[in-house]
Amino acid sequence: MPPSARRSCLSVPGSSERKLAKAPQLAADEVVIDLEDAVAVDAKDAARATTVQALASWRGPGVAVRVNAPGTPWCHLDIAAVGALPVLPASIVVPKVQGAGDLAFVDRLLDGVEAGSDRGVPLRVQALIETAAGLARIDEIAAASPRLDALVLGYADLAASLGGARDLDAWLPAQHAVVVAARANGVQAIDGPYLGVAADDAFRSAAARARDLGFDGKWAIHPSQVPALNETFTPGEAEVARARAIVDALESAEEGAVTLDGEMLDEAVRAAALRVLARADVA
Length: 283
What we know:
- The chain has 283 residues and is an alpha/beta fold.
- The chain contains twelve helices and ten strands.
- It is globular.
């Protein structure tokens, strides 16, 4: 499992120097610099250059870059520019992933970019599931790349792909599919943004629902939503203490069955405990 917490992932347009300058001071676990939906077609090249400049001097929380989707004129340019940086962001977010072939394309491109550098750490990848095809192939996507860190559920494009708006309950099958695929393949499950900018009761309800379903965090589209997400996805003291005790018990066990307070422990329980510690940022 990726070690970094992603309780709150704040999307920031890569075309805005002002917002990029402000983002490192915010309390998000991860800032996602967006070169796709937040950038107009005629501003793609300028946004890429602005983003590269911002990343060169980045001092702040973890940072990812949402590149343009495979099959667009800008995807390979975005990946090459980000992958060539001397100090890499935490990951790139690949939008509209339709199947394993999209991630294979990204892998090959990154392999070529990294072959020309002396870095030993490969750039990580997050896959945005936001089309009917991607959702139908979620299992193959989740297992497609050793670079994969997370699956992210994208609601706006998925609603358009499926046809029509959906209420919170109608998204349950898609949410469940993403969480199951993520857990089966040892990557994080991140809920996409609530389609509103306020941190109101509806937003908090959606965040709590995602947490209870097993998501590790959620995207935000406004800085005011970040504190609510950090609070929602931060485990309480008792939950953290229990997770730490589980990890310690398994690490100190020599062999055979391991129990803690009458509960049988195994690697699946350990993985869940490590997710708790990652969200608490104490792993």
